[in-house]
Amino acid sequence: MTREYESSLKVLVNRPNSELSELKKLTTDADTLAANFKHYFNHTLGRSGNCDKTHYYYSALVMTVRDRLMERWKETQLSYDEGDCKRAHYMSLEFLMGRALSNSMLNLDITEEVRKALHRFGLELEELREAEPDAGLGNGGLGRLAACFLDSCATLGLPVRGYGLRYEYGMFRQKIEHGRQIEEPDHWLRDGHPWEMERPEYTVRVHFGGRTVHRRGYDGSLVVDWVDTNDVLAVPYDILIPGYRNNTVNTLRLWKGEATDEFDLDEFNEGSYPEAVAAKNDAEHITMVLYPNDKSENGKELRLRQQYLLASATLQDVITHWLMNHNGFGQFADKNCFQLNDTHPTIAVAELMRLLIDIYGLEWNRAWEITTRTMAYTNHTLLPEALEKWPVRLFQKLLPRSMEIIFEINARFLEQVSHQWPGDNDRLSRMSIIEEGGEKMVRMAYLAIVGSYSVNGVAQLHSELLREGLFRDFYELWPHKFNNKTNGVTQRRWLAMCNPELRQLINNTIGEDWISDLDQLQKLAPHAKKAAFRKKWRAAKQHNKERLAKLVERKCGVRFNTEAMFDVQVKRIHEYKRQLLNVLHVIHLYNRIRKGDTENWTPRCVLIGGKAAPGYMRAKRIIRLVNNVAAKINNDPLVGDKLKLVFFPNYRVSAMEVICPGTDLSEQVSTAGKEASGTGNMKFMMNGALTIGTLDGANIEIREEVGDDHFFLFGLNAEEVQQRQGGYDPNAIIAADNDLSQVMSLLESGYFNPLEPGLFNDVIDSIRDPNDPWMTAADFADYVRAQQQAAERYRDQDAWVASSILNTAGSGKFSTDRTMRQYNEEIWKLHCEKKK
Ligand code: 26Q
C-alpha cells in the first residue's frame, strides 16, 4: 500500500461519526423485513414476481439479514478501536463455516419475524434455508473448531478476528458410484456469495521467489533486501460473525490471491502479449482450492504458497492497522496475539521477524521478543507422520529470506539448548528445527514451539501425551509454555439451531439461559427421574429420528425404522478412527441373525459417513467395504428390520445438523492415544446420544462429566496400546475368538465381493498384521460386549431416555464458550482501556 493511501485511510478512521457513516438502527419487525426483502428482490436483484428461482429469494433474504449485521459490525469495530483493545488474531488455513443464514437469524433473534415476513409472499423459510450452499472451507475437526471459536468469541464480546483463505473451491463433493467415492469439485462461489464484502482498499502485496541481497545500510548496520520477487496481491473479503443477541459482530477476513497489474516486460516487448498476461494465472491459482487431506502431505509447493500468503497478508494487515493508531512497536506485543491453528500458518513466525527487521528496521533481539510474546500454537495431532515438514530446498526457492531467518532462529535456539545440556549432541539433533540425515527438512512444529509463548493440546489426554511424548524435549526446556485447552462446540448451532424440538423442551423446563451459559443444562438432571419429562424427551428424539430417516431414504434409498436404535459414526475416514471396527461389528450382528441367535434382539440402523482423502487408498477401500456389506444386509430378507447399514454420502456441516439430533448411539472408537480430541463426540452428547467409545481424546472427559453408567466404555487405554506394540498377535486373538473368527471367515470367503475376488484382501491383511498400529482385533471382543450392553440398555427405554437426558445435562463443559474463556484467561488476556 502506498503512503498516500495509508494517510487517506487514517482520515477515514479518524472521522467515524461523519454524517455518511451515521447509522439509524434498522428495525426487525416483520413489516420492515418484508419491505426490505421486496426491495432487494425487485430493485437490487431485478427479479420479478413470477420468477421461481429460490436462489433469488434466498439472496434477497441474505441482504435483508446482512444489513442488520452491518450496523452492529461497524459499532463493534469502532468500539474495539476506541478502547484500544488487545486483540487475538486466529490464523487458520481452514474455517468450516457451513451455512450462515439460520445462525445469523438465531443470533439476531429475528427468525420468527422473518418467517412471518416471508409468509406474506407465500414463501417458506425452510425452503430458502436449503438454497444456501455450505461454506466448506475446511477438512473436518480443525476447521469446524475454528468456526465454533468465532461464534463463541463474538458471543463473549472478545475482540478476536479470524484470518483465513477464500478458496474458490472448498472441500470436494463426495458422490458414491458402485460403492466407490467419486470426488467432484465444489464451486461454492459460482452463484455469488452474498455474505461476503470485498475490501480492495486493504489489499496487500506478498512476495515469492527472487533472492536476497545483504548490504550495509547508511548507518553501517546490516540490511537485507529481498529482490527480483514474483509478487501476488492478497485481497481481503470480510464475513460478519454475529454474537448471540449481544450486538457484537466480529470479522472473519479471508484472503484471495490475485495477480498484480505488472507483467513480464521482456515477454511483452517481444510481442508475446497473451503469454505475458497468461503468466498471471499463477497468482490466481494460489487460493483456488482447499487441500483435501487432513494429514500433512509433504512438499507440495502450492500448499506452502497458500500458507505464506495467509501468514504474510495477515501480519501486514495487522501491522498496518496497528501503525495507524500507534507510534512504533513499543506496545505491539501487549496488544496483539496470533493463535496458530496447528502448524499450517507457522511460517508467520519467520514472517513477523522479516517484517519487523527488514521492513521496519528493528534489531533481531527486539523483533524476537515481540514475536515470542505474540505467537501461540495449538497442536491438533499426535500422529508423528502427520507432522508438517518442508524441504529446505523448496523453502530456499520460494521464500529465500524466510529460510535465512529460520536458520538464524535455529542457530540461536540450539545455542540455548547446548547451554542447558552441554555435550548432549543427540538432544541437539533431536530438537533442531532442521531435520538432517536425508533431505534437509524444516520441522514446522518445532519452529512453532520455539517461536511461541504458549503451546496447547486440545484435550487433557492429548496435552499430556504431547508433554510426555512428541514434545518431551521441549517440555523439559520450557515447561511453562505447555498447557491444555479442551475443545468444545457452539451450542447455538449444535443444539439451539439444529434441534428446535429439544430446544423448546429445554426452554420450557429450565428457561433459555443455557444458550449462552451451557452449564445451566445441569438443571435438566433431576428431570431424568420424571416419567412425564422422559416421555417428552423421547418424543423429541423420535421426531428427529423421523427427520433423519427421511434424509437417509432420500440420499441412500434405504428406509430406517425409527423404533430401531440409530447407531452413527460420521467423521473423516481414517484407519485410526476405526470405521473398520464398526463394520466388523455389523458383520458380527449379521452373523448372529443368520444363525438365528436373535433372542431379545435390539433392531439397529447403522449409519457411517465421511470423506476419504482422494489419495488415501486404504480409506477408500473401507468406504467400498461399508457399501458392499450394506448391499448384502439391506437386501437379505432374513434380516428385515433387525439391521440396516448405510453409507451416508457427502457428509458435511449441514448434514450433521440433521444427523446429530436423530442419533441414539455415538461411535467414538478410535485407537486410544490417536484422536487428539474429537468434537463430533460433543455434538452427539449435547443432543442426547449415548457414547460407545474408547479412553481417547475428549471421550475421557465426556465420560467423566456424564458418569460411567451412561457411557459404554471399551478397549485398551493409551498406555496399554503402547505396551502391546511389538508383542501383538492378532491371528492368535482371532483364532481364540469365535465371533471374530466367523466375521473374518465371512469376509475372507468373498461373500461381500463375489464379482471382485480379492477386493478387500488389503483391508483384511491389515487386521491380521502383527504391526497393525490400530489394533482392531485387540479391541473387537470388548467392543462387542459394550455394544451388547448398549443394546440391552436400549430395550429398557426408561433407562435409555434417562441416560440420554443426563448426557445433555452433563454436556455443559463442552461449549466453546468455556474453551474461549480459557484461551482468553490463560493465553490471550484480552483487555480494553476504559473509555474516556
Ligand atoms: C497439512 C499440510 C498439508 C496438507 C494438509 C494438511 C492438514 C490439513 C488439515 C493437516 C491436518 C488437517 C486437519 C486436522 C484435524 O482436523 N485434526 C482434528 O482436529 C480436531 C480439533 O482439534 C480434533 O478434535 C481431532 O481429534 C483432530 O483429528
Features:
alpha/beta; binds ligand 26Q; 836 residues; 6-stranded parallel beta sheet
Structural class: alpha/beta
Largest sheet: 10 strands, mixed
| Beta-strand segment tally | 25
Q: Say which molecules are bound, naming each kind only once.
A: ligand 26Q
**Count of individual helical segments:** 35
Oligomeric state of this protein: single chain
Shape category? globular
Share in helix: 40-55%
In what range is the share of β-strand residues? Answer: 15-25%
Low-confidence stretches: 1-15
Cα Rg:
28 Å
Overall mean pLDDT stands at 95
Measured distance between first and last alpha carbons: 32 Å
How would you describe what is shown here?
The protein is an alpha/beta fold and 836 residues long. 48% of the residues lie in helices and 15% in strands. It contains 35 helices and 25 strands. The strands form 6 sheets. Strands 1, 4, 7, 8, 11, 12, 13, 14, 18 and 19 form a 10-stranded mixed β-sheet that branches. The two termini are 32 Å apart. Bound molecules: ligand 26Q. Ligand 26Q binds next to helix 7.
Secondary-structure map:
Elements: H1 3-14, H2 30-44, H3 54-82, E1 87-91, E2 95-98, H4 101-108, H5 111-119, H6 125-129, E3 135-137, H7 141-156, E4 160-165, E5 173-177, E6 180-184, E7 196-198, E8 204-208, E9 211-216, E10 222-227, E11 230-242, E12 249-259, H8 265-269, H9 273-278, H10 281-285, H11 301-325, H12 332-335, E13 336-341, H13 348-359, H14 364-374, E14 375-378, E15 389-391, H15 392-398, H16 400-420, H17 425-431, E16 434-435, E17 441-443, H18 444-451, E18 454-457, H19 460-470, H20 472-477, E19 482-484, H21 491-497, H22 500-510, H23 531-556, E20 565-570, H24 579-595, E21 604-609, H25 617-634, E22 643-648, H26 653-659, E23 665-668, H27 680-686, E24 690-693, H28 699-706, E25 711-713, H29 718-724, H30 730-736, H31 738-748, H32 761-768, H33 776-795, H34 797-809, H35 816-828
Helix pairs in contact: 2-3, 2-5, 3-4, 4-21, 7-35, 11-13, 13-14, 13-16, 15-16, 23-34, 24-25, 24-31, 24-33, 30-31
